[in-house]
Amino acid sequence: MRGIRWAAPAAAYLLLTCGLATAQTTLRIGLAEDPDVLDPTLARTYVGRIVFASFCDKLFDIDQNLNVVPQLALSNSTSADGKTVTIKLRPGVKFHDREPFNAEAAKFSIERHTSMTGSFRKPELAAVDHVDVVDPLTINVVLKAPYSPLIAQFTDRAGMMVSPKAAKEAGDKFGLHPVCAGPYKFVERVQQDRIVFEKFADYWNKDNIHIDRVVFLPIVDSTVRLANLKSGALDLIERVLATDIKSVREDKTLSLATALELGYQGLDINVGNGAQSKNPLGQSDKVRQALNLTIDRDALNQVVFNGEFTPGNQWVSPENPYYQQAYPVPKRDVDKAKALMKEAGVSAPFDVDFMVPKGAETQAVAEVIQAMAGEIGINMKIRVTEFATSLKQAEQGNYQAYLLAWSGRTDPDGNTYIFFKCNAPQDSMGYCNGDVDKLLDEARVPSELAARKAIYEKLTKTILQDVPKIYLYHRRILIAHMKKLDGYKQMPDGLVRVVGLSFK
Amino acid sequence: MLSLLGKRLLQLIPTLFFVSVIIFSLQQLLPGDPALIMAGEERDPAVIEQIRQQYHLDRPFPVQYVYWVQGVLSGNLGESMRIHVPVLDLILQKLPVTIQLGSMAIVIALVIGISAGIISAIKKNTFWDYAANAFALWGISTPNFWLGIMLIFLFSVKLGWLPASGYVPLTEDWRASLASTIMPAFVLGNAIAAILMRHTRSAMLQVLESDYVRTARAKGLYERTVIFKHAMRNALTPVITLGAIEFGTLLSGAVLTEQIFTIPGFGKLIIDAVFNRDYAVVQGVVLVTATVYIVLNLLADIAYVLVNPRLRN
Question: What is the mean pLDDT of residues B15-30?
Fold first, then answer.
């Protein structure tokens, strides 16, 4: 009887301790927006890429220094004519539905990206003609023309592999229950509330997965997102405001992880898109050079961002291997700017319609530029415009200067081609220069960094001369997380990688 | 009573038709191009063209309207361009959340507003009256977003009593559900409580000075009976209508409150849809909101008749 009396509490204790020992660990990540559809072919948002990083592995990935590293692929090589890229695949990889990942699956995924109705990957993989299966773990990606940024494209959504079986069954509804080959598998999604993933037991790199579940919670307001982190309701948040950096650093329970972004913040100038371009700024490269010289990027960075960002003057940051050291960030030179204005023969002061997307930071940046430009007689008339409206107005050429950010791509081609090629999708500036077009195409051929950098140097020189765009600064990707979260490293693409993370 | 109900229900049809035309027309006035937003950062022309075709954005406005109305009449409100989920599913998922939040807010508003209004009226020109008036002024003049953030800092960050944001369904865990909605419900209900308090006070003051109340008091009835049985019933008639109208205000207030507290309800759904130019979602949500609003007004009219027997004929 005495034995029985002790047995119950003992069993309860055992159950409790076992329960504690096997308690599930959950990583709660606060996102700045609700992601769009979770189908790598149909997805288009930056925030969606953060979610994909935890459940949808790619053929290649990047490291902290922007080097391409293998993920689902093991290696790649390009033929002498540059038109065939051979990719060796990792053996023993399974999708979340236990289907094997092999050359057939890779071919299916790439061709789904290039052919599916509504695919946003089509422009990224426009150079791909078709994919050949060489053996069960090798594919040949055959190109229409040499295209060296291809492997860089495979480090993003275009390189994400989906289970052919699940994708065929679900069709365009695949995003409602995505099946990939990443560290976590999809559990559920409540729109605008949460997206839940759980550890995938058969993941190829499962020894480096130490957390059981990952939950993404979209919280739009940055103050509330930070409050959630501070109150312990979240473990990690993305897009911390530069003005909140101090508050995060002062909190002993929090850590800040940063990396310089792949993109930039710049000023588009309407040089040839409709009637609005017919003004001194749009018509004279000297006036644009003067405006460029009058902007004190260091002061801008200090005033608006407490010096936390990095001033820039090119489409890649000064830390990027493709940055052209021969053209450093210019110091402010008002005398030279005035001389250029005189040379251009324009009668200052004159007004410029300056379209600025709504936002506290963008408006502050615009005001600093306005104050500086005013000194050489360029009256930047700020017109704060809601973002979606501003895109349409830019497309229609209804602006003279437009403050616009670009999130950036791993390969410099992604930061240049669609902006400067004549009539390119992002060329709302109306810029067209035959020499630039030639250089942009040439830069897509060689695969060695030195050879490409030499071509980009010529491109940099021309763009800095013509100034259709003024590059201002590069933001730091700001991620705040609880100190107890161990092993977090920030990559320049801003994504949150969950492999290797654990709780102390 | 039944014929009144029938008449009012019939009136719903033209009202909803006009609402649908207005929603559709106003949306066309929204600057910006949904295809341009949907096409991602790259904005490839081929992709933009294909989105326009897929969602009939390349068709003339009346044709787009006919497509939409045909769908609505067959119970299909379309599909979200952004997340590829049927709009009806989204609405059915979000509506209970906002209804829960709205109901809690209206209960808070009614309890605070009516009791403060009555106390203020019967204790006219005393400390309680001034305190209730000060509360009303504070409630009306405090912006939702500010109060929300202050409450989060106090109860979540400093005291750690309540979750800073998020939502737990009632069916999952009622305690956690109440904890997650009490702050947003208070923020929402606060402004309405203030308005209700002002109206209850003036209505009560008017009724308390009327002849029948004087008669009731002269009969020697308890003051409690005079106030709760005789005065309050008459005084509350306009307050009921106001409550129904304020429920509509509450739905619009939910837009901001849900955004601050990250409550995945109607308000958050519509604000995200507007910023992403997700037309089908905006149309669906506004149509349902308008219908709810009209039905609530109808219910208020019925309640009016129930409270005031003279209107039955």
Answer: 83
| CATH number, position B259 | 1.10.3720.10
Question: Greater confidence, A328 or B55?
Answer: A328
Chain A residues touching B264 at Cβ < 8 A: 190-193
Q: Tell me the C-alpha distance between A183 and A155, whole Å.
A: 16
Count Cβ atoms within 10 A of the Cβ of residue A444 and give its class: 0-12 exposed, 13-18 middle, 19 or more buried: buried
Interface size, chain A vs chain B, as Cβ–Cβ contacts under 8 Å: 135
User: Is A376 within the bounds of a domain?
Assistant: yes
Cβ within 8 Å of B, A 382-421: 386-389, 391-393, 395, 406-407, 418
State the Cα–Cα distance between residues B311 and B313, nearest whole angstrom: 5
Residue B253's pLDDT is 73
Whether A172 contacts chain B with CB within 8 A: yes
Q: Which pLDDT does position A22 carry in this prediction?
A: 53
The verdict on residue A123 lying in a domain is yes
The ipTM assigned to this model is 0.70
Same domain, A305 and A425: yes
Look at residue B162 and tell me if it is in a domain: yes
Q: Which of B19, B42, B73 is the last residue of a domain?
A: B73
Decide if A2 is inside a domain: no
Q: What pLDDT score was predicted for residue B172?
A: 84
pTM of the model: 0.81
Check residue A466 and give its pLDDT. Answer: 96
H-helix segments, A295-358: 297-305, 334-344
Closest Cα of chain A to B194: distance in Å?
Answer: 26
Residue B27: strand, helix, or coil:
helix
**Co-location of B213 and B296 in the same domain:** yes
State which of B181-190, B214-223, B244-253 shows the largest mean pLDDT: B181-190
- pLDDT greater at residue B222 or residue A199: A199
How high is the pLDDT of residue A4? 46
Regarding whether B133 and B66 lie in a shared domain, the answer is no
Distance from CA of A504 to the nearest CA of B (A): 22
Q: How many structural domains compose chain B?
A: 2
Q: Is residue B105 part of a domain?
A: yes
Q: A494 near A50, Cβ under 8 Å?
A: yes
Within this chain, do residues A283 and A388 fall inside the same structural domain, yes or no? yes
Residues (pLDDT < 50) of chain A are: 1-4, 6-8, 11-21
Name which of A46, A192, A224 is nearest B260 (Cβ-Cβ).
A224
A-chain residue closest to B94, CA distance: A191
Identify whether B9 is part of a domain: yes
Higher-pLDDT residue of B31 and A490 is A490
Task: Please list every residue in chain B whose beta carbon sits closer than 8 Å to the beta carbon of residue A39.
Answer: 84
Three-state DSSP state, A503: strand
Check whether residue B101 and residue B39 sit in a common domain.
Answer: no
Give a three-class secondary structure readout of A171-214: HHHHHHCCCCCCCEEEEEEECCCEEEEEECCCCCCHHHCCCCEE
